[in-house]
Amino acid sequence: MFGKRPDGRRLKNLAPIQMIMPYVMKTRNDSMNMYEDTFNCEPWDEYIKEKETEGLKIGYMHILIAAIVRLIALRPQLNRFCMNGRIYARPKIWVSFVVHPTLRNDSDGTTIKMCFEGTESITEIAQMLNERVAKETVHRTEENDTDKLLRTLMHGIPGFLIKFVVDILMWMDKHNIMPKAIVELSPFHTSFFVTNLKSLGINHIFHHTYNFGTTGLFFAMGKEKKIPVVKNGEIVEEKHMGYGLVSDERFCDGLYFANSLRLMRKFMRNPKLLEEKLDKKVEDVE
User: Distance between CA 75 and CA 257 in Å, rounded?
Assistant: First the structure.
């Protein structure tokens, strides 16, 4: 109600053009920017094999999430969000994604939300992801708290009241009075969302961001494929993986996004850069 939220602090020392943007573009769907890129999979495959010999199970999803976490830790403006015309900075880095116990048509997915400090190495992130995914799939005995919250909204409330309740929650979120417990469980209140379309065998898409919650970055990882590239003056085939990114442009400018994406490409080309822990993440402005 007074600018204080459990998931972020309000930023006041911003350029005037940044401060007015959330009033010009009032929703995330209104302010979506779309970007795509592809990466040579060879360094990833070599790294995955190397870690397998060390007893660590790691895959493309682990590398992508670790790269984004490191990117946000070094480029804190990417960890901002807009709410009710104001811009906030998150204290930590959250990721949301959906996993399926199996890829059968009737397999229900479960939503996972995880929190990182931003200083973790790729091996630490991979271990945390493996433990959490195993808990939500092979070792799962009941719904997690996030799924329980969503089920309560959908089945614990009469159908004709669901829209009213969701509208109330969005109003509470807009005015910073959403209960902390709901914010912490909501997968829509996150630094970035990831969808792994590679596991479904299809190409990446541009997935919309949500007007509910605070998600400002949505990454969609696609199926790898062989493409022709020029190498040493010759055309050769390389296995590449593409991803699509949809971002909320209101909380930082295009130059900052562009420089951030160049750094992202650096991490994607060489996952070993993520092995060293950060002493501390870069803090945003006051």
Answer: 9
Kindly give, in sequence order, each residue whose CB lies less than 8 Å from that of residue 42, ignoring residues fewer than 6 positions away: 238, 239
Strand pairing partners for 38?
Answer: 242
pLDDT tens digits, residue range 99-109? 876 656 666 67
Instruction: Tell me the two tokens of residue 56.
Output: 């660590």
Contacts by residues 162-169 (CB-CB < 8 Å, ≥ 24 positions apart)? 166/212, 169/212
Model confidence pLDDT, tens digit, residues 29-81: 889 999 999 999 999 999 999 999 999 999 999 999 999 999 999 999 999 99
Strands 192-196 and 93-99: parallel
Q: Which of 248, 241, 190 is nearest to 215 (CA)?
A: 190
Q: Which amino acid is at 88?
A: Y
Only one residue has tokens 């509910």, namely: 212
Tokens encoding 219: 């990454």
Tokens of 226: 């062989």
The C-alpha atoms of residue 234 and residue 240 are separated, in whole angstroms, by 17
Query: pTM for the whole thing?
Result: 0.91
d(C-alpha 112, C-alpha 120), whole Å: 19
- Report d(CA 244, CA 204) in Å as an integer: 6
199 and 222 Cβ atoms separated by less than 8 Å: no
